[in-house]
Design a protein that fits this description.
Elements (H helix, E strand, L loop, with lengths): L1 H22 L14 H7 L65 H9 L47 H7 L10 E5 L18 E6 L48 H6 L3
Antiparallel strand pairs: 1-2
Length: about 270
């Protein structure tokens, strides 16, 4: 009886721990416990130095003594080292895309903030005093760049292009892109015909609530045009076919299933 009770307690405890560990990594559960919670990652993975006071937002934002000059980067109360790397820009391969020009800084807007962790060079756990600001935010010795395969970008020429005006692309490729007033797609059934996807009104496609225009920075497509960094309104994906116990969370505005994310903008 005692052994049975112990087994029940152990199983219950493990289930509780599993639910706690996975809660924040799921979509729409907030930044706490997500893969953008550096303190959480430091405690569970051990490769990042945690914040002294176990804070979460502090790795990017601070209420006091924020960086006063970020070189024009839209950084609200920014508390992290800004990436200064210059990456190889994307080059249009299709002749029809040549009228679409890039900003002088292809990492315009929030993209450079994203690269403050995802450039493979800047320390992910570098914030507060280590970001060159005041001394009240903590005492971290940020030394660990993000070098996990697939989680950093050191060459913009092999990624989806960012830093161009969406309207330029819309003009250059009429009928091939959704109007920015349309929403991201909540779902696309398998085998659905993507023709006329710009209407977002056909019965086989389910529209979401987030407008494409809401994710553009001054009209520019940036990293935040696909990714919800705070893990609040992003898409819920289905479990992996090869690993049913794993449900990926890529912080994206539309599901990966049947390429709903791609088809939200591209009419294919």
């Amino acid at each position: 009886m005692v052994k049975k009770l112990i087994s029940i307690l152990v199983v219950g405890a493990l289930a509780s721990l599993a639910s706690i560990a996975m809660a924040g990594t799921s979509p729409q559960t907030g930044v706490n416990g997500s893969f953008h919670d550096i303190t959480y990652l430091g405690a569970t993975i051990g490769s990042y130095k945690q914040d002294d006071y176990q804070r979460v937002c502090i790795f990017c934002h601070t209420p006091h003594n924020a960086q006063a000059n970020t070189g024009g980067v839209p950084a609200p109360l920014w508390n992290h080292t800004i990436s200064t790397v210059n990456l190889t820009p994307y080059t249009w391969a299709a002749p029809a895309n040549l009228p679409i020009s890039f900003n002088a800084d292809p990492l315009v807007g929030p993209s450079r903030l994203c690269m403050s962790c995802h450039d493979g060079v800047t320390a992910v756990d570098s914030h507060g005093p280590d970001a060159g600001v005041g001394t009240a935010q903590g005492n971290n010795n940020g030394t660990t760049p993000l070098t996990s395969p697939g989680r950093y970008i050191d060459n913009l020429s092999v990624t989806h292009p960012v830093g161009f005006l969406y309207q330029d692309a819309l003009n250059a490729r009429p009928g091939e892109l959704s109007d920015p007033s349309k929403t991201f797609l909540a779902s696309v059934p398998s085998g659905a015909n993507a023709a006329s996807n710009d209407t977002h009104s056909r019965s086989t496609f389910t529209p979401g609530t987030k407008k494409i225009s809401d994710t553009l920075y001054g009209g520019y497509l940036t990293c935040a045009s696909c990714h919800d960094v705070h893990n609040t309104n992003n898409a819920k994906n289905q479990a992996s076919l090869s690993n049913p116990g794993f449900t990926p969370n890529y912080f994206v505005w539309a599901p990966e299933q049947n390429s709903a994310l791609c088809l939200s903008c591209h009419v294919k």
